Amino acid sequence: MEDKKLERILDLVEHVEEKEPRRQKKEKPNLKESIYSLRLDELQEWLKENGEKPFRAAQIFEWLYEKRVKTFEEMSNLSKGLREKLNENFALTTLSTIISQESKDGTIKFLFQLQDGYSIETVLMRHDYGNSVCVTTQVGCRIGCTFCASTLGGLKRHLLAGEIVEQVVKVQQALDEVDQRVSHVVIMGIGEPFDNYDSMMNFLKVINHEKGLNIGARHITVSTSGIIPKIYQFADEQLQINFALSLHAPNQELRQQLMPIAKAYKLDKLMEAIRYYTDKTGRRVSFEYGLFGGENDSVEHAEELSKLIKGIKCHVNLIPVNYVPERNYVRTPRNQIFAFEKVLKKNGINVTIRREHGSDIDAACGQLRAKERAQETR
Ligand code: SAH
């Protein structure tokens, strides 16, 4: 029922069809599955089916995630036959780096090309607590939020789990050069992770697994625009992963103006789902609240927001709008941002104002790809 509703609303979301991407190969390349898509148990299963010993899976994981080799050939404790079989059946590289740009604050933005020619973005952010990677889950997005650059060309396709995992592996390989580690992952790049739920879950399991990238669940954050049935499903997974909701408005009317998905998933039902999540997991939720000048950023909105989330175990992240040329939103003046924050604090709500990273290199989601897309369609 709820899924039907989503389909209907998503059909309403405008899809601007692009021409073939510039770098798409003329003949369809023979695409192999990414080895990074497989969980350890799936790789064990594959090995069994292919007449190999399941314990090899742990060895392969070690090559992939600890030694981070770039060819199957290098997996020297596997038989030549197995290495060949892996090579025939799987791809070890499905992303190639088109651009990596470093900002003055150390943020690095990667533009990767997929095997079928589409491009995606990944961002490495340096914090005092560690290195955080922001991953993309879809090529484009069909949610249609009115302020967001990622959704401008509609959805092209879902990413496979391996294409999401490889983003982190690629960034880790870059960090290997300076002996540093990816310590945190946020699923806040292009796309709606709950619209690509199964791949997102496999991704989570691989990066979280101790034999995978071993990134602690509490160091991983997933953010959704509010696909209610998936919030229930996610709550029932009982993971320790941090969960964020892009709320952006304190009432139904305003939310549906900013985010068309709110027409399918109403705010009252959404808040019920959020309460279910916090009750079921005992964990708090992060509300992301973009401040869009003159739209949702008055002290009255702050009071209304405080009422809406009263009693929910939560944290509010205020995000001053990132300028997107195709969108008309303007920044909230600094003193008004502080006034908004003050109201929330007065009402006993945990709140922070999000620090900007890499604004000199288009690090906000979808901005680099948007430029690339403009070239693709030339
Ligand atoms: N689709 C998921 C993941 C994206 S996370 C989601 O909606 O949560 C990226 C966050 O940045 C979301 O909270 C999104 O609403 C917000 N965002 C998108 N465009 C923005 C902009 N121009 N300014 C500020 N925040 C923006």
Q: What is the topology?
A:
Blueprint: H1 2-12, E1 33-34, H2 40-49, H3 56-66, H4 80-89, E2 90-91, E3 96-102, E4 108-113, E5 119-127, E6 130-134, E7 138-140, E8 155-158, H5 161-176, E9 182-187, H6 197-208, E10 220-224, H7 228-237, E11 242-246, H8 252-258, H9 261-264, H10 267-281, E12 285-291, H11 299-309, E13 314-320, H12 334-346, E14 351-353, H13 367-376
Parallel strand pairs: 1-2, 6-9, 9-10, 10-11, 11-12, 12-13, 13-14
Antiparallel strand pairs: 3-4, 4-5, 5-6, 7-8
Helix pairs in contact: 2-3, 5-6, 7-10, 11-12
Bound molecules: S-adenosyl-L-homocysteine.
S-adenosyl-L-homocysteine binds next to strand 10 and strand 12.
GO molecular function: 4 iron, 4 sulfur cluster binding; metal ion binding; rRNA (adenine(2503)-C2-)-methyltransferase activity; rRNA binding; tRNA (adenine(37)-C2)-methyltransferase activity; tRNA binding
Keywords: 4Fe-4S, Cytoplasm, Disulfide bond, Iron, Iron-sulfur, Metal-binding, Methyltransferase, rRNA processing, S-adenosyl-L-methionine, Transferase, tRNA processing
EC number: 2.1.1.192
